[in-house]
Structure formats: C-alpha cells, structure tokens
C-alpha cells in the first residue's frame, strides 16, 4: 500500500468514528414532543412532554419577570409552537427554543412571586417523561419553599439532616397527662428531604430544626398519653422527592385527616431578606374556626415564653396545610432562621428543647381552655 493511501484510510477511519459518535450523541437526546398549556381559575399548568427522561433546572429572572426552565439532553421537536400567548393573570407568554445543542429552554413570562410557581417532573404515563410547571395560587409558606430553584435530580442533601436525631427526655407533669390522654394529634415538621426550607446565615437548614423540634414535641405528647402522628420522622419528603408543592403538602394534610386528629400543628422557621427580622408567629387559616385561632395563639405564646422571641401575633393566612386540614390547625413560625441570634437559639440543643416545650405547653393549654 502506498503511503498516501495509508494516510487517506487513516483519516477516513477517524472521520467515520467521529461521525458515528455525533450520531450516537444525537440519538441519546430526548425529543420535546409537545408543550401543553392548560388554564384554570387558580393556576396555569404548562407541561413539556419528552420521549424519554430529561433533566431540568429552573431559575427566575427579572425585568420583565420570567421563569426559565432548561431541559438538558433534549432537542426541540419540529411541531412544537415556539411562542404562545397565554394572556392570563398568572402567565403572559411562553417561549421555547433550542438554547444550546442539547438544551431546550422554556421561558415563561409571569408576574407571580417565587412561592407561586413550581416546576416538577412526572415520570410515567403515555409519555415517558414530563416536566410540569404550575403558576398561580400554589403559595403555601412564607419561608423558602425551594421551588424557585429545583433540579431534576432526586438526590437530597445528606448533611445537616438530623436523621440520627433522638429526642430528649423532657419531663411532662401530671396535669398535662390528664389533659392530653387519648387526644389524637398530628405534628408536621416543615420541609424535609429534597426541600431544605430556608437556610440560616451560618447554614442551619429549616428542615433540620423543624424535625428536631417536632420529634421532641411528639415524644412529650406520647409520654402524656396522646396518640401522636408525625408527618415525617426523618429527613425525607413526605410525598416523595421533588414532588409538586400541592402533592407534598396534601400528603401532610392526609396524615391529619386520615387519622381523624383532634388538632394539626405544622412547625416552620420564618425567613426574610433583612437579617433583623425576628420573632414568633402563629398562623391559622383565614376562614378557619375559632379553635384554630385559639390553637395558633396558645402555641405561639408557649414558644415565646420559652425562647423569649418577640411576639409577632396570631395571624390569618392561606397556607395549604392549615387550609386543607379538617381539624383545628396552626402553622407556627418558631423564629427567624435568617436572624443570626434566632438561628443560634435553634442550633443549640437547649433552644430546640425549649421551642418544643413551648409548643407542647401551648397544646396543653389549648385543650385545657
Ligand atoms: Zn417553612
């Protein structure tokens, strides 16, 4: 074989290998086959249908306000509309484009605030994989819901988890026992698993503190003879990782509703951009019963007595878990994790025990009154 032919064969070979790798890579990509938009009174749902699993990541941009969802390892199908006018109070316009070779970008122009949208994956169904985006009245917590930045990965944060946490042996007196005996109570430690909740300036996760407090409250209630249900005992999502806000929160409500609990107490930490914000708030549903208001007030007061936080009052709200539970319910914002002093309280075992004792005392007083 002459030299020139050998070089030519070699180059041809390389070219073929390179070409084949491109073809392989292209066929690995998911195709976004459809982008469906449905509207109802309280929300707009946008669903991207892919022919195989895609990873997704979302983030918000301002002026104009828009939420961007990147679907990676994906190409845009030929028949998908590139621009859709929704002209709804939750969504103005949806645009979709091949942003990079393997990234399809969906841009949703929407005026909703960060707790009023959610991006989540749905596996299964006729299409192998869907990414759904909800915009509208899905707001549920004034703390961070984690839904403003979510990824398709189902891995959850391993650190800061409180998974091995054992509640303390806090004594309860006999009067509490006589009040609580036989009462059915659901305790809901806010967030968990893929949703860390708000994060304090020195790194305390809301989900970690709420779990520790919740486990201590549950322990004291059990000791007093109450029948206690807790929505989670470990660092996990109640419904499942990266579920929609509604699915996750409904799963928590179900624990209370299906057990016919007498009361439902959801435990959260507050958070605000200004680190100076501080204090304890007892929330109850705006159309809730007088008993819910009473429960919110006593629980909040109990916490304040123990940890000495400023009183932000008992306030009405529209949070999902107090709205969709069928018994008197409160969501207590124990303190601001964004405030360095209050974060320090909740990082200490003493602070956790006191917060739990305060919630417990509030529950006892509620049943006493
Ligand atoms: Zn929260």
UniProtKB/TrEMBL annotation:
Domain (MurNAc-LAA): residue spans on this chain: 253-364
MF (Gene Ontology): N-acetylmuramoyl-L-alanine amidase activity
GO biological process, one term: peptidoglycan catabolic process
Family annotation (Pfam families): Amidase_3, AMIN
Keywords attached to this entry: Hydrolase
Transport recorded as keyword: no
Superkingdom as given in the UniProt entry: Bacteria
PANTHER family: N-ACETYLMURAMOYL-L-ALANINE AMIDASE, N-ACETYLMURAMOYL-L-ALANINE AMIDASE AMIC
Protein known as: N-acetylmuramoyl-L-alanine amidase
């Amino acid at each position: 074989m002459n030299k020139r032919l050998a070089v030519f064969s070699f180059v041809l070979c390389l070219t073929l290998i390179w070409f084949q790798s491109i073809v392989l890579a292209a066929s690995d990509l998911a195709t976004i086959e459809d982008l469906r938009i449905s509207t109802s009174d309280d929300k707009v749902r946008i669903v991207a249908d892919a022919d195989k699993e895609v990873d997704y990541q979302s983030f918000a941009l301002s002026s104009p306000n828009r939420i961007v969802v990147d679907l990676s390892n994906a190409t845009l199908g030929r028949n998908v509309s590139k621009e859709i006018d929704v002209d709804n109070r939750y969504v103005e316009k949806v645009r979709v484009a091949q942003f990079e070779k393997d990234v399809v970008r969906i841009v949703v122009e929407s005026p909703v605030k960060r707790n009023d949208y959610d991006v989540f994956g749905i596996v299964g169904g006729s299409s192998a994989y869907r990414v759904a985006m909800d915009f509208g009245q899905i707001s549920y917590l004034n703390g961070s819901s984690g839904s403003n930045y979510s990824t398709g990965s189902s891995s959850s944060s391993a650190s800061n988890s409180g998974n091995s946490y054992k509640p303390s042996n806090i004594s309860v007196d006999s009067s509490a026992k006589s009040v609580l005996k036989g009462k059915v109570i659901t305790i809901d430690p806010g967030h968990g698993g893929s949703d860390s909740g708000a994060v304090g300036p020195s790194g305390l996760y809301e989900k970690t503190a709420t779990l520790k407090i919740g486990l201590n409250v549950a322990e004291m209630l059990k000791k007093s003879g109450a029948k206690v249900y807790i929505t989670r005992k470990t660092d996990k999502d109640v419904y499942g990782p990266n579920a929609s806000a509604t699915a996750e929160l409904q799963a928590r409500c179900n624990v209370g509703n299906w057990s016919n609990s007498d009361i439902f107490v959801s435990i959260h930490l507050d958070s605000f951009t200004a680190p100076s914000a501080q204090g304890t708030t007892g929330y109850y549903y705006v159309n809730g019963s007088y008993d819910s208001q009473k429960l919110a007030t006593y629980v909040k007061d109990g916490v304040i007595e123990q940890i000495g936080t400023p009183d932000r009052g008992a306030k009405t709200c529209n949070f999902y878990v107090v709205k969709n539970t069928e018994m008197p319910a409160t969501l207590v914002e124990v303190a601001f994790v964004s405030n360095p002093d209050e974060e320090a309280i909740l990082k200490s075992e003493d602070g956790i025990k006191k917060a739990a004792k305060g919630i417990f005392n509030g529950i006892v007083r509620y049943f006493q009154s």
